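Attaching the record inline, Q. Sequence:
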Amino acid sequence: MYGGSRKRLLTSRASAGRSAAAHRSAAARRRLDRSGGGDSVDRLTTRGRLAWLNTATARIGTTLDLERTAQELAEFTVPDLADGAAVDILESILRGNEGSRWTGTGVPPMRATALCAVEELSSLEPTPVGETFVRAEQQHETLLHRYCLRQGRSVLLSRMRNDDFIRVAPTPSAASQMRAAGVHSYMAVPLIARGLLLGSADFVRGPGSPPFSATDLALAEQLASQAAVFIDNARLYGREREHVVSLQRSLLPRATPVTPGLRVHAEYAPSTAHRGVGGDWYDVMALPGGRTALMVGDVMGHGLSAAATMGRLRTVARTLMTLDMAPERVLARLDLATRDLEDEQVATCLYAVHDPADSSYVLASAGHLPPLLLDGRGAADFVGLPIGAPLGAGVIPYDPVRLRVPEGGDLVMYTDGLVKSRHADLDHQLDRLRTAARDLAPEALEGGGLVECAPAGAARFDEAVLLTATTTKAGSADLQVWPLPREGRAASVARGLVRDQLAAWQLTELVDVCELVVSELVGNALRYGNGPGELRLLRGDRLVVEVSDTGPDLPQIQHAELSDEGGRGLQLINMLCRRWGSCRTATGKVVWAEQNLPD
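Structure, as predicted:
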């Protein structure tokens, strides 16, 4: 709106390349006026006006960005139609309140969206772009509010008198600025598309320019009618994109769990391009024994269908992750689930399980880009991981890789939107990613700094997911691992280790239950698992006891008759513990049980 606060010069700095041409065009117009050519628009024939309006369709609405479209409207009218132009949009429209027309009292909140002017009016300072103007000193109703916004009618003041400046400007000081700048003619037109009032566009002429005429107003109204449709299209696209992005974010984890030996930062970056939202996802899950499951995936395609498929795949993947299976087995099951989808989608996926006991990862990939490993000492390289077929392709099995990461090292998992570029090949972009990660400070890397520095050249046209896992020291006070003998005294040894450790942790009230649980787990390992392997005790949000063995069969609760001497061990564990479970490993299986800590 013209005549606002003194915060930004009304110049065409946003389009600096057009300033000189605008000045020359305005000067030529003034020369024609002084030589008797008359009104600038009146000099145009009907065919000339139609040609000018036809040009507008090619120069306004080139993108689906609302602010850019409004700026294109302002720039198109200067200097051909006006010496200065401002476009303002109702705040209620930008917030999604689509009332057909403002009919209330007072001044409705409006947001200054676009500005453009010739150099001669550089002293005129309107409301800065992006600012919502509805302050106490602006509560009086101007002609723009009364006619454009309330009635949907245009305003034309061909030759402004002293009292007209007060009727046009929102404040007395703004009126003085317009008068001092030599503004002598004003018009404002409403922006209405599909019966919906979006805002207004107002125009001014200054020294050396003829006053606006009825022909100018008719031309401005036709132009505003065209431009309003483009602005409304951008508004509708922005609203739908916001809905899809909200859906996408709602399908992703709200927070990452705190797990021993690992510090995880996850970030989702939506695309700035049309239909850029799709099926990228990530997940982080705490597993028994202090392990952490990390996953990133990317459904091929964009739009709502890809986001919906992503939600279904993530649900299946999360269910498989809770079973604590090996990464290659999780991907194999996930491939079967992907093939069962009705829309026949294909996705890539990278899955890793971190074990704080030896600071290692086990990784498997289904057609996904390789993770980036930073060793914490300045070196960065991609992990040599066998790339299996994408999920849904039906080509299995997947080959796992075990990787040791030193303390302070980082494992960076990401989707291809982080490195996609229309200006460079993938190898070049991956090399740029590695260089950027190596040069980032540790706090910037762990804070998602790669999201900003990875793309080359243009803005990101595909969404991206970034997952950075930093290896920390797993406190020995929270995680203890002991080898157990493969003989009958293993249960006694395990009870002693548990009893001493719980006393050191000042959790003596859990000793009786924990001794019983570990005795049953070790007994099952001796009877069905070729002897126990390791005993693991973890103190986190809960107390977890875990026993491994080399047996192939997973334990199940048995129905024991009153006369049976055995078969009640897992029933006792199920009654005394919060939960229990088992999972297969490369060498056998692990059985675990979890207890709540005392308040």
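The radius of gyration is 34 Å. Confidence is low (pLDDT under 50) at residues 4-43, 135-139.

More tomorrow.
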